[in-house]
Design goal:
Number of helices: 11
Shape: elongated
Strand order of the largest sheet: 2-3-1-4
Order of helices and strands: HHHHHHHHHEHEEHE
């Protein structure tokens, strides 16, 4: 059995913290904003919320029991590692939902509306932002919240269909079904708006953690540029050897990946050494190893 290194222990602690924080933020979105204003969205949580609106059966119980069944399939089909992290997130998801709803319930059994009556639009936006932020924190830990994630992962294992497409179909069915509970297309629209804002927030947070820049430099002064970039940033470079398609002049190409905040420093180094260099800059969605993110399994 592999011995855990100090870095492995820290990764586990960090993942636990992120999952707990993410689930707390996610459940705040539901308990404070979405549930009191009877707003739904996609996913298993959205379906559970619709069931709660229609029957008063707490959504956390629906989430727990459905995930319990799905996790049994996940263990069998997707493996133990995926199952353990997902089960951990689900436990805290349901626990925080229970706590959040109890704190937001008035003496007469109704939910407190902290924004006041008629503030459905604002509640929709704030709840969706908290949902997206919370789920992003869980994803950054390499975890999952269960529900449609498990269904999509299983479908993807056996069918040539993207996870995003599977989840999109399921979300469409869930949000549209709330019309049968409310009989009001306005609530269906709120559901889709919540989903869009939630997805946008999720993407923004996920991409902000991976804002690295790849700079490609076509220059005759590659040695000087490499030495200066390495000295001032600590990053190493890759040298490629090319030839002009028209001039047939041989040219060295320097490729370096730096953190976004370091890009301007590298550009200034290039300008100071070879102001005639041809430079392209590209955003990198994820860079792993050698001073960047750790590859997570």
């Amino acid at each position: 059995m592999r011995h855990l290194k100090r870095e492995d222990v820290w990764d586990i602690i960090r993942d636990i913290i992120l999952i707990n924080l993410g689930m707390a933020v996610y459940d705040m979105g539901w308990a404070i904003f979405l549930l009191p204003y009877r707003i739904t969205t996609g996913g298993l949580a959205g379906l559970a919320a619709i069931i709660q609106y229609a029957t008063s059966f707490p959504m956390q119980y629906t989430i727990f029991f459905v995930n319990l069944i799905l996790l049994l399939f996940a263990w069998w089909i997707l493996g133990i590692k995926f199952t353990i992290k997902t089960a951990y997130a689900v436990i805290f998801l349901t626990s925080y939902l229970q706590i959040g709803q109890s704190l937001m319930t008035a003496a007469d059994g109704t939910f407190l509306q902290v924004l006041g009556p008629g503030q459905d639009s604002m509640a929709c936006m704030l709840g969706a932002v908290l949902n997206g932020l919370g789920i992003a924190l869980v994803f950054l830990s390499g975890g999952s919240t269960g529900g449609w994630d498990i269904v999509a992962a299983i479908a993807n294992k056996y069918r040539n269909i993207s996870l995003g497409r599977v989840m999109l179909y399921l979300d469409f069915v869930v949000i549209s079904s709330c019309w049968f509970v409310f009989g009001d297309w306005r609530m269906v629209v709120f559901g889709y708006v919540t989903l869009v804002i939630y997805t946008f927030t999720l993407d923004m947070v996920m991409n902000s953690t991976r804002q690295d820049i790849q700079i490609t430099i076509y220059t005759k002064h590659d040695t000087a540029i490499c030495d200066e970039v390495r000295r001032r940033t600590g990053h190493t470079m890759t040298l490629l050897y090319g030839e002009g398609g028209y001039s047939h002049v041989q040219l060295n190409i320097v490729v370096v990946i730096v953190h976004k905040r370091e890009a301007i420093k590298v550009l200034r180094i290039i300008r100071s050494i070879d102001p005639d260099a041809f430079v392209t800059q590209h955003r990198v969605e994820g860079a792993y190893g050698n001073g960047f993110n750790v590859i997570k399994g």
